[in-house]
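Hey, can you fold this one?
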Amino acid sequence: MLKKHRTLTVCLMILLIFTSYVIMDTFFIKRVYGEEQTDSSESVTSEQEDQSSQADQFNSEDTEGSGNMHDGSTGGGHRGPGKGHKPGTRGQSEDDADSSQGGTENTAQSQEASSDSYSDDNISITLKSYRENDTTIYVADVKVSSPEYLKTAFAQDSYGRNVTQKTSEIAENAGAILAVNGDYYGAQEKGYVIRNGKLYRDTAISGQEDLVIYSDGSFGIINEGEVSAQKLIDAGAVQTLSFGPALVINGNISVTENEEVGKATASNPRTAVGMISKTHYVFVVSDGRTDESAGLSLHELAEFMDSLGVKTAYNLDGGGSSTMYFNGSVVNNPTGGMGSKERSVSDIVYIGK
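Sure. Predicted structure:
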């Protein structure tokens, strides 16, 4: 009887040690990996040869989108680019921060920056906040002369598992002007990871819907089970983001009212990116889980992205990860970490030189 008891005790101890290791390995043990493939710089370079002609287009009106954010001076609140908001309903903005405070100008680089805008010879960003569904939503409207200014960066400048930093810290290290949290690739063992033209992980998740950003600046939605990562590289993929789902495809909302991400509740802080044209993007973050902001469902987020006139929009990691950084400061009110409440994440999507 005593021998049987000892055997049971040993088995329980082994099980406890194994369980503890699995938990530590999954959530805490940092593993930095090497790159798996070479980059697609040749295809990127060929596209960037057109930068001078794209710069001319940057300085003119978009023919594929519907212009910039309005300043609201004619009444009826701010309106997003593309499909207009109806007065008194969608798109009613909050009071903007005084753009005259904190403004700087570097005439040598033709650069201007303030609390709600940035512009230089190649990048123009306007930041607005909206109030929708009892939730504050932050929208950065971005126009660039070349898609090369749309980039991604890893935490601690390293690809690996459980390698994390706050969005603002990754952004500062990368020299980002604007940044949002990415797809938190480091929490997964599988799922394509292509960043800035390099293939880091090519193990597919069947049925996983990815956002692909190509070297010409266009957005595409793919199913990992239907195309290999190498074929995406060969087709000019510069970035893949593997979270999802897609919110808008070909100008049409692609989620249902009841659709949600696996572990999410109906209303949450959210992060999304959208393409209006190949050099015109929107970065969107909503607050949530607070008395001031309820948060958005996926369908509500998709409706909002659609109202901005996007052709393609994609849902990134949300909840406590949702963070927007602009001109040196965190714009929204993250809810995922201790102290500053900013959660450490694996990666960011950003605009920078």
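Residues 35-107 have pLDDT under 50 and may be disordered. Let me know if you want another pass with a different chain boundary.
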